[in-house]
Amino acid sequence: MSAAQTPESAARRRFVGGAAAALAGVAIAPGLILLEARRAAAAAEIASSAVRWGLLIDTTLCGTDCTACVDACQKENGLAAPTRPTDAQWIRKVELTDPYSGRSKSLPMMCQHCAEPPCVDVCPTAASFKRADGIVLVDRHRCIGCRYCMMACPYKARSFVHQNLSGQKPDVPRGKGCVEGCTLCVQRIDRNEQPACVEACRASGRGAMTFGDLNDPKSEIARRIRARTSVQVRADLRLDPGVRYQGL
Amino acid sequence: MAIGARLRRLGGVALLLAGCLSAPGLQAGTPQPVIEQARGGQCVAPPAVMRREHMVMLMHQRELTVREGMRGARVDLEACVDCHASRASGSVDARPQDFCASCHRYVGVKLTCFECHSDKPRQAALVPTLAGKGTP
Question: Is residue B74 a part of any domain in this protein?
Answer without folding.
Answer: yes
